[in-house]
Specification:
The protein is α/β, with parallel strands linked by helices. The protein contains 7 helices and 8 strands; from the N terminus they run ααβαβαββαβααβββ. An 8-stranded mixed beta sheet has the order 3-2-1-4-5-8-6-7. The termini are close together.
């Protein structure tokens, strides 16, 4: 394990208060597939398919099993109202969700209770919570909202157990993502206005360098593309959005 993964608690603040407030205001609509998080509901199955395949490949488990994470722990950072936490729990994991907005973790906890799922939700700055390490660490569409990306990724690495798997997804900083995600989706209301700041998007090369500095090695990268016929889907085209896995180097 690298030096970047030794300390589990840090005073380095990575959360932008205005970002947390923005997403906190959306908390009550998070589980409405036709509400302000409609795009996430379309994106979630695509991400889940990639993550499930990555789990099977990483732990060489039974691809037919409905609980490939049985006996394992999972941490979802920037969990929102639990759209990813709940499927991970159904896969058998002992799940912890962390979010900067307390409104989100409150809604997430209520929804999990209603679904009969035992998921721990914790609000706050990841580096100050002392949560320990996890077999699986996920962080979907979060890094583009973080103030100090290097410090944040070091915090993620610090929470990944030896032999564990990390999965991250984020928009790429390209003219296509600017046109479709910022100028397009936000303009027509598919994504709430003010959600994206294109200059904060991270390219795959930049993210790989940041992960390497945090002691992690990227093992697989795929694009999440859009077409009128296929909708959102896993692709070799990284120009809009991408998802990757990493492990300790």
């Amino acid at each position: 394990m690298s030096d970047a993964t030794v300390t589990l608690e840090t005073s380095s603040a990575t959360i932008r208060p205005e970002e947390a407030a923005h997403f906190g205001k959306l908390a009550k609509e998070w589980w409405d597939p036709k509400g302000s998080s409609a795009m996430l509901h379309k994106l979630n199955p695509v991400r889940l398919g990639f993550i499930r395949e990555a789990i099977d490949m990483h732990w060489a488990g039974d691809v037919e099993s409905v609980k490939p994470l049985a006996g394992k722990t999972a941490l979802d950072v920037g969990c929102g109202a639990g759209l990813l936490c709940e499927p991970l729990a159904r896969m058998g994991a002992e799940v912890t969700g962390v979010d900067a907005a307390p409104e989100n973790t409150q809604v997430a906890a209520l929804h999990a209770e209603g679904a009969g799922l035992d998921i721990r939700y914790v609000p706050g700055e990841l580096g100050s919570l002392g949560l320990g390490t996890f077999d699986l660490v996920t962080c979907m569409e979060v890094i583009e909202h973080v103030a100090d990306k290097a410090a944040f990724l070091s915090q993620l690495a610090a929470h990944l157990a030896e032999g564990g798997l990390m999965a991250l997804s984020t928009p790429n900083r390209t003219l296509m993502s600017k046109a479709l995600l910022v100028e397009g989706a936000e303009a027509i209301g598919m994504v709430p206005k003010g959600t994206h700041h294109w200059e904060d998007f991270v390219t795959p090369e930049e993210l790989e360098d940041l992960l390497s500095a945090a002691g992690l090695k990227v093992t697989r990268v795929k694009g999440i593309a859009f077409s009128p016929l296929s909708g959102l889907h896993v692709s070799e085209d990284l120009s809009l959005n991408y998802i990757l896995t990493a492990r300790h180097a």
